[in-house]
Structure formats: C-alpha cells, structure tokens
Design goal:
5-stranded antiparallel sheet, Nuclear Transport Factor 2, Chain: A, alpha+beta
Length: about 150
C-alpha cells in the first residue's frame, strides 16, 4: 500500500455545500408559495363573508321597506344589522344600509366593513308598486352593483 498526498482537494465538501444551498432555496420557495396561497385564501374568505353580510343588509332593507309601505309607516333612511347577528354570522362585520327614494324607486346603498379595513359594498335599486290600499303589488330589482375594497 502506498500512502501519498490526498488528491481530492475538497470537491466532496463543495458538492455537499451546493446541494444544501439548493435544498434551502427550494424550501424557501415552497414556504413563500404556501404562505402566499394562505393569504390569498384568507382574503377570498373575507371577501365572501363581507359579500354575504352586505347581501343580508340589502335583504333586511328591502324587508323594512316592504313592511313600512304595507303598514303605512315612513320608510327608514338607515338600516343596520344588529351586532349580535353580525357577530354570529359575519365575524362582527358592521353592516349599514342607507335608503333613498326617487318616485317608486328605492336605492339601497349597503356597506359591510370588518375590523381589518376591508369592505364590501352593494348598491341595489328596487321598485315597489303600491296599490290604493297601501299594499305592495309588485316588487322588482332594477340594478345591482357590487364592489370590494381593502386588498
């Protein structure tokens, strides 16, 4: 057996360091992708929840309009969902609808806000035709606009 100088000169260490660098880079890229997907999913869930809250505000407003017309009472100008309801179903989103009237057409501008600053807005236009005995004869939704803010 001949013992002589080692001729490998550290190539194995270089290969191991390069392999570790590649694995670390790949792991960091995967972590970034997963984190980004989770944030997008959370944002989509908030948007869906706020859209449901705004829709509930519009429906409650239409109910209030219908009840006021049928009972011969003035139509409310503001409708807010009770905090207990929004806490239970919409994670404490604040839901407020402003109602304005032009002839037979009512415009319901409903905004649902959450604590993080995201909001969903629905502007609905509805027509209620009333007969001589103050009953609603016909109800028709004329327009519906939706918008989301806070991404």
């Amino acid at each position: 057996m001949k013992w002589g100088p080692n001729k490998q000169k550290g190539y194995a260490l270089l290969v191991v360091i390069l392999a570790m660098f590649m694995v670390t880079t790949l792991g960091a890229a995967m972590f970034t992708m997963v984190y980004s997907d989770l944030r997008n999913r959370e944002s989509q869930e908030k948007r869906i929840m706020l859209s449901y809250a705004a829709q509930a505000g519009v429906e409650e407003s239409m109910f209030q309009i219908h009840e006021a017309i049928s009972d011969g009472m003035p139509v409310p100008s503001v409708v807010e969902l009770p905090p207990a309801e929004t806490e239970q179903f919409f994670h404490s989103a604040a839901v407020r609808a402003n109602i304005t009237r032009t002839g037979e057409t009512y415009v319901i501008d409903c905004l649902a806000d959450d604590v993080s600053g995201k909001s969903f807005r629905i502007i609905a236009k509805a027509r209620f035709k009333v007969n001589s005995s103050s009953d609603v004869e016909e109800f028709q939704i004329l327009a519906y606009e939706r918008s989301f803010s806070g991404d």
